[in-house]
Amino acid sequence: MLQKYAGFFVSLPLCITIGSRIVEQPNAAIAQTLESLPQNQASDCNPELVECAHRGLTRFAWSAQPIPHLISPRRTKILNPQPLIRWLPIAGASDYTVILEGEGLSWQAQTATTQLRYTGGMPLKPSGVYEVIIEADTGASSEDEPIHPGGIAFEVLTSAEQEVIATQVEKLAGDTRAIADLYLANRLVAEGIAQLEQLWQTAPSASLALRLGNLYFEQLFLPTIAEEYYQQALEQELSLAQQAIALVKRGQVRAVMHDSAGAIDFWQQAQVIYSRLGNVNQVEALARWIEEEQEFL
After folding, report:
1. In this predicted model, what pLDDT tens digit does every residue of 254-265 receive, in sequence order?
2. Domain count, the chain
3. Domain range holding 198?
4. The whole model's pTM is what?
5. Are 124 and 111 in a shared domain?
6. Of 95, 130, 156, which residue is a domain's last?
7. Residue pLDDT, tens place only, 46-86
8. Cα separation values, 147 from 209, 253, 296, Å
9. Residues 6+ apart with CB under 8 A from 147
10. Rounded to 10 degrees, what is the CA torsion of 30, 36, 37, 42?
């Protein structure tokens, strides 16, 4: 049986290929990587295309073992120097230890919940780069997560940057979607997602579910959360093109999570829709993915 995903692709501004092995970037490179994150969801590539010049088949390393994956702040810049830290629960865990490190700081706290706000005595430094580690009393740790290019650190905006953002937010007069766009354009991924999830509570839509799914999948590398949004997209009123996109993305999630049969099934469903739409290019692109994925069955 083939060794699955010894190499992988990541949907960042340009598709990154990491040879035949996972490469760990040193901490010094994390800030630079944060700078290279996509500025927003808009692109010059038609969002209805399966493949774009800069968006290949999104694949990254993933482990099926129980891990308290950090949700936020993760691969983002932040406004609030006292961020709310959130993570995925672990079955059987009754207590979590939260460790925040970086810039000479090492803060630790315990909680029985799956979120905790940083309230340490030392304020997080503007432009400082930090990383959060979650340890469950079951022995599982967020450090068990496979290494991703750029890691999962976060960076605090400078005071000047915060002032600029605050001024721009004020001009948007409470327009949640516009504020989310502003945050994402400035690499404030966590804040942008928070705004979009707030909008989701009052005005859910297929396009919004797809956007949230893409943010969790392509930027944060959290396939389980992304899959929930892609499924939500399929449950909304949506066009045939949107339905095909949601099926393609669900297939990508299944592929990352080592479910090749599931991935192929979703991609075949998407092929049927693209055939109805007369989109031969997308049918052929999916055929290539299916052929490659069959090698892992």
Report:
1. 999 999 999 999
2. 2
3. 158-203
4. 0.84
5. yes
6. 156
7. 444 444 433 446 678 999 899 999 999 999 999 999 999 99
8. 27, 18, 22
9. 22, 23, 24, 61
10. 180
